[in-house]
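Researcher: I've got a protein sequence and the SMILES for zinc ion. Could you write out the 3D structure of the bound complex as structure tokens? I'd like something to compare against our soaking experiments later this week.
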Amino acid sequence: MKKRCIFILFFLLLFVSYSFAQDVNLRRISDRLYEILGGRGANGGAYIGDNGVLIIDAKQDEKSVEQVIEEIKKITDKPIKYLVSTHSDGDHISGNRYFPETVTFVASENCRKEFFHPGRSGAPSEWNKPELAPFVPSLTFRDKMDVYLGSKKIEFWYFGVGHTTGDIVIYFPEEKTAFIGDQIFLTRVQLIHSYKGGNSFEHVKTLTKMLETIDAENFCSGHSEITDREGIRNHIAQMKNRQGKVKDLIGEGRNLEEIQSEFEENEARLIESIYNEIKSP
Ligand SMILES: [Zn+2]
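Model: Sure. Here is the predicted complex with zinc ion in place.
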């Protein structure tokens, strides 16, 4: 009986949180650069160039995409030229299909490959459906690509494997602001998608390389508030601490379950990834 009540309460809460989900709204960073918040799916970004608009990440459903397009129309009549995906998770790419086909879809080479990667459960990717082909990234790059919207340069950087194998950084030099997708979580435990080839040790290297390469001061991400270089450094240090502790416990001969019990419950999946990475590098 108690179980059933909890079950009903869970779905009620889910329904309430869904129906009262905040509408899409833009948060101004500069006259040209905005964070896209609200709606269903991760936070993204919008940049108003001289001759067109670049959108970062697509949200997750049709209503949210319609709201994104409406919000952009309120600040510019320039067309949406590019939609760039920070990585291949559904909350960032599912909405691609609701953007006009005339938009150029951009991602890293690895991210495009991951569009077709089976899900965590092994189910085939929906992006194999022919009707979705026009919304799969058609423009890809390996390490770096510059995009010009008139006189304005935007830098796309791929620094390596981490959260997935395809995460990128979109850097706006004038604003000293970088959009880094899900390469950082501040209030939740970092996700590392091992099933897609993500790796926590590479994640540390990748974020370190980012700090060494670009002089960004603000970092916007999919599920956290804007942070600074110190925030990224703290995140790297936290991950290194976990890795060190897991290594030590493995050295003491402890098994995975015993090691997980030394951490918070919500860290279990990440600890499993770290454990597997150390056991079979
Ligand atoms: Zn996300």
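Model: The chain has a mean pLDDT of 94. The CA atoms of residues 81 and 200 lie 34 Å apart.
Researcher: Great, I'll pass this along to the crystallography team.
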